[in-house]
Amino acid sequence: MNSSNIFSWSLVALLTGLNAFAAGPSFTNPVLAGDYPDPSVIRVGKDYWATATSSEWGPQFPLLHSRDLVNWEIVGPVFKERPEWAVGNFWAPEIAEWKGRYFIYYVGRKKGGPLSLACATADRPEGPYTDHGPMVSQDAGSIDAVPFTNEKGERWLVWKEDGNSRRLPTPLWAQQLDESGTRLVGERHELFRNDQPWEGGLVEGPFLLKHGDYFYLFYSGNGCCGRDCTYAMGVARSKALLGPWEKYSRNPILAENAAWKCPGHGSIVTDPTGRHWLLYHAYDPHSFVFTGREMLLDEVTFGTDGWPQINGGNGPSAQSQSPYGARQKRRELSFFDPFDGRDLGPGWQWPHDHRPTTAVSKGRLVLSPTSASANNPIGAIVARSTTSGDYVATTRLELSSLKPGTFAGLAAIGDPANALGIAVESGKILVWQKEKNRLQAKVVEQAADKSDIFLRMAVTGGNHFQFEMSWNGRTWQRVGQTADGGYLPPWDRNVRVALTAGGAAGAEARFDFLRITASGVRAATKH
After folding, report:
1. Sign of CA dihedral 137, 141, 88, 128
2. Could you tell me which residues are beta bridge partners of residue 70?
3. Whether 440 contacts 526, CB under 8 Å
4. Which of 145, 283, 421, 465 has its CA at a distance of 20 to 30 angstroms from the CA of residue 290?
5. First vs last Cα of the chain: how many Å apart?
6. Contacts of 101 (CB under 8 A, 6+ apart)
7. What SS3 state is found at 19?
8. SS3 string of 447-480?
9. Helix (H) or strand (E) holding 351
10. DSSP 35-70
11. Which residues pair with 49 in a beta bridge?
């Protein structure tokens, strides 16, 4: 994007914000900072419930709650334990209500098989959810399901065949659901596929909305993730679910601007006044892949030509008028957990295939690996999604209880194969980096005969890491050189701040707290 375009987009974003401010209470995007891709939302009375992709982090799929679409909190996961049939790729959960029951259609990878669509149900939107296993498992993969009631009152499922994984087209399919809503019946029908230049190698993330005489199918196209992403959102319409479908001549209707990069894959909810709101994801270009795909909100309106618009076609809004006249609370990009509860609270995560053993007691987190990861130097991992590219993470580790050979400390995790951090092991303080599963550690200090040590990680730009230590929490000493963590984020995830414990059989580490203090431009402008 050239400098004149950036100026134009910035001016549009500023004017949009000023107009929203003049009209009443406004909100600033994101409505939820951090890694919440592919969000899905429903309204139940006065409450809104949402969920999002958790990918390779457990527990699977965060459950989010709001009363106004602007202020969100994590209340727990959809699944406390990983579904037995799947081994990873927990993507694109779609929450829905039908006949008084609540459904979550989601993606997982079958053991020894392809990406598959499955369904879980509950009596309440907050769960507990019962998993019913896979519904469809095409050879190329089946992802991004959304249920919908057609013009005849029949319940159908629409999803994407993941042909782009094999350099093939990506049809959107529709098939009728049975009375339980958990199984497919009848014949499968193709709705449309990627055939427009802007769509690139795929169309995906469908969502359907009935408005007037038409069904509108919102969908995303091109590359979703990572530094080279090209994502955008388009729309097609039809008077019948099975078509024919007409794609909008002015697609995409939502594309990047100076404020947000690669927007797409969301769902639409209608508030009690009849206004339509799109909850979707995009990257903040200032911290980009390091804070992941964050959760944004924008209103969907319909123009005189009968086609939908989002923010006047100017891309994601930086600031917009709030639904309900809601006032956005101070969004804490920072985080603090003193471990004074009975267990880890909502929002803590771990690698989905290596759930650690945790206990919270007397203001300390006791962390130890399971047998599957006990001999891995990093071992147990519990983590929080980062919400800014500039932050300082601090913890206090109890030294006196560490067993010989235990490798414990503070780290930044892209995934278990790509991480870096500071750790204490057998009386030594080390800085370490792990790239493509290759671990390199350097002893930089000898630990003093103390009962506790403070460890600190200062991060700038999302990928420059400086580690520090302290014996009193006030006087700090640098440990090692500034490390480049640009290799950390996998293509579809952000960096997590983690506490770790491993390296020896019976390893166990005790932490007093974790504090993550956001700083820099983003924290100043978005708090």
Report:
1. negative
2. none
3. no
4. 145
5. 28
6. 121, 122, 123, 181
7. helix
8. CCCCCEEEEEEEEECCCEEEEEEECCCCCCEEEE
9. strand 350-351
10. ---S-EEEEETTEEEEE---BTEESEEEEEEESSSS
11. 42, 65
Please choose, from the candidates 32, 17, 16, the residue with its C-alpha nearest in 3D space to the C-alpha of residue 282. 32
Q: Round to whole Å and give the CA distance between 141 and 157.
A: 16
Q: What 8-state DSSP symbol labels residue 200?
A: T
The pLDDT tens digits of the residues spanning 433-450 come to 999 999 999 988 887 788
Determine the residue type at 400.
S
Nearest to 232 by CA among 258, 191, 195, 204: 204
Under 8 Å between Cβ of 173 and 189 = yes
Distance CA 305, CA 290 (A): 40
Cβ pair 86, 106 in contact under 8 A: no
Query: How far apart (Å, rounded) are the C-alpha atoms in residues 419 and 390?
Result: 17
Distance CA 379, CA 359 (A): 16
**Which long-range CB contacts under 8 A does 479-484 form with residues at least 24 apart?**
479/422, 479/429, 479/431, 479/444, 479/445, 480/422, 480/431, 480/442, 480/444, 483/420, 483/431, 483/433
* pTM: predicted TM-score of the whole model, two decimal places: 0.93
pLDDT along the chain (527 residues), means of 10: 41 43 78 97 98 98 98 97 96 98 98 97 98 98 98 98 97 98 98 98 98 98 96 98 98 98 98 97 94 98 97 96 86 88 94 94 92 72 96 96 92 96 94 95 85 96 96 95 95 96 89 91 37
Left if phi > 0, otherwise alpha if psi is -120 to 50, otherwise beta: which for 13? alpha
What are the CA-CA distances from residue 389 to residues 333, 422, 492, 511 (Å)? 10, 19, 17, 24
Q: What residue ranges in 388-437 does DSSP mark as E strands?
A: 391-398, 407-415, 418-425, 428-435
DSSP string, 256-305: --SS-EEEEEEEEEE-TTS-EEEEEEEE-TTTGGGT-EEEEEEEEEE-TT
What is the rounded distance in angstroms from the CA atom of residue 362 to the CA atom of residue 340? 7
Are 204 and 160 within 8 A, CB to CB? yes
Residue 372 sits at φ, ψ, to 5 deg, of: -65, -25
How far is CA 367 from each of CA 58, 202, 289, 425, rounded to the nearest angstrom? 16, 42, 28, 15
| pLDDT tens digit sequence for 409-430 | 999 999 999 999 999 998 899 9
Q: Report how far residue 36's alpha carbon sits from residue 48's, in angstroms, rounded to the nearest whole number.
A: 16
Q: How many CB atoms lie within 10 A of CB 17?
A: 18
- The residue type found at 367 is L
